[in-house]
Amino acid sequence: MRRVVISGAGSINALGKGVAAFAAGLRDSRCAIRTLSLFDSAAYRSTCAAEVESLAPPTWLPAALARRVTRTDLLALIAAHEALESAGLRGGGSSLQGEASPMMLAVVLGATTGGMHASEEFVRRRVLALPPAPRRALLTTPLSTTVDLLASVFGAAGPRLVVSTACSSSANALGIAADMIRSGRADAVLCGGTDALCRMTFSGFNALQALDKVPCRPFDRRRAGLTLGEGAAMFVLEEEAAAHDRGAPILAEFLGYGVSADAHHITQPRPDAAGALLAMQRALGASGVSAEEIDYVNAHGTGTPMNDVLETRALKTLFGPCAYRIPVSSTKSMVGHCLGAAGAIEALACVLALRGDFLPATVTLEEPDPECDLDYVPRTSRPARIRTVLSNSYGFGGNNTAIVLRAAE
User: Fold this and answer.
1) Half-sphere exposure of 330 toward its Cβ, with a 13 Å CA cutoff?
2) What are all long-range contacts of 28-31, with beta carbons under 8 Å and residues at least 24 apart?
3) Are 370 and 340 in contact (CB under 8 A)?
4) In this structure, are strands 296-298 and 16-17 parallel, antiparallel, or unpaired?
5) Residue 49: which residues within 8 A CB-CB, separation 6 or more?
6) In this predicted structure, which of 116-130, 205-219, 378-392 has the lowest mean pLDDT?
7) What is the C-alpha separation between 89 and 103, in angstroms, rounded?
8) Which residue, among 220, 170, 105, 11, has the nearest Cα to 162 in the 3D structure?
9) pLDDT over 60 at 15, yes or no
10) N or C terminus: which one in the chain shows less Cβ crowding within 10 Å?
11) pLDDT of the residue at 139
12) Which residues does the annotation mark as catalytic?
């Protein structure tokens, strides 16, 4: 079987712009959750979010395009540009040019809200009789808009696909990208996730009373809900031999992924955690990795009362007595729950942990829940040599995905 590696990565989230800024924020255990300023949140039950501040079009983006891209587009473009640059690739018309020869580049993107924020602004101006926003804002709502834009801007002539499975969207995007490499359908895949804050999701989660009034506290006994965030993480995946031939950096190896469906409820997870467990078991099976080989788990860890207990139980079932020696943490305590982008952002956190020899912390965990009694790396990051990691993403509708990554040799 072809070995799939990550040869490039790009990032933007509330901890900062760029992979280096994200790595520094994780290592320093900084919480980037604060009062939302993107739109008026005063009337909502919760007013905090992990917002990307001072988001502006980069100088390399043509001015005409910069005027019409949405917030979700912009996050994806910034992360994708960094990923391609770090992989040693540059746009070249109908294909992507590497150091040696052209390659066919596919694009697979996970997302949930598309250009909703721009569409909301259009409607808001109409309702309030303000000067109208351009009508083209309504054309940016579909999720396919962003993946088409990425393909156009970066000259990706291979297959393109948008994945929307709620909060597991971009984790699935990475898995599908790896499948494309292994099957020979693409030479390389630009893949990941992007989602921006918008009124629809903020109102919806507030209506569900699923948001904590303070920064989310995964695995803490006082936890009362999640915190929404926004951002993007993008990767270049390719076959190991091809990356070596190009002299490209190898950041980590993508071993495999597992998917399951709870078939239970539109928002609530199965009370027996069978779906979460099955996704992890399938990920290990697809990767050829035993449970004992896992050195760290990046948990879905939303901070909701039910999710954290059930994920803990699933981990205990998967690992057995070993569960108490395997560190687990939720990086949502720093960058919030970025919905469709969450899986990719957390996969990047795992890559940075592998390369930086540290464990990201659950920074808001101060009073552990007795039912959540594993090692959740509370408050501050921890030095550690780790080799193989598991990252979980569980979405509404019972969409469960787990991925396994290994340190580059």
Assistant:
1) 29
2) 28/381, 29/334, 29/360, 29/361, 29/363, 29/379, 29/380, 29/381, 30/334, 30/363, 31/215, 31/333, 31/334, 31/363, 31/364
3) no
4) unpaired
5) 33, 34, 36, 38, 41, 197, 202, 227, 228, 229, 230, 336
6) 116-130
7) 10
8) 170
9) yes
10) N
11) 72
12) 167, 300, 337
What is the per-residue pLDDT for 96?
44
At 322, which amino acid appears? Answer: C
Burial class (CB in 10 A: 0-12, 13-18, 19+), 71: buried
Structure tokens at 28: 């320093």
Enter the tokens of residue 14.
Answer: 């509330």
Q: Is 111 helix (H, G, I), strand (E, B) or coil?
A: coil
Give the Cβ contact number of residue 265 at 10 Å.
12
Name the pTM for this structure: 0.95
What the block records as the tokens of 140 is 């940016």
Backbone conformation region of residue 273, classed left if phi is above 0, alpha if psi is from -120 to 50, else beta: left
Neighbouring-strand partners of residue 192 = 109, 234
DSSP secondary structure string for all residues of 175-235 = HHHHHHHHHTS-SEEEEEEEE---HHHHHHHHHTT-B-SSS--TTBTT---B-BB-EEEEE
- Amino acid in the structure at residue 305: P
Structural domains for the chain: 4-252 (3.40.47.10), 257-407 (3.40.47.10)
Q: Is 90 exceeded by the pLDDT of residue 125?
A: no
Angle at 7 between CA 3 and CA 11, to 5 degrees: 130
Please answer whether residues 190 and 150 qualify as being in contact, where contact means their C-beta atoms are separated by less than 8 angstroms: yes
Whole-angstrom Cα Rg for the chain:
20
Closest CA to 374 of 268, 302, 296, 263: 296
What tokens were used for 57? 């079009």
SS3 396: helix
Neighbours of 283 (CB within 10 A): 28
Q: What Å distances lie between residue 113 and 73, 331, 359, CA to CA?
A: 11, 21, 31
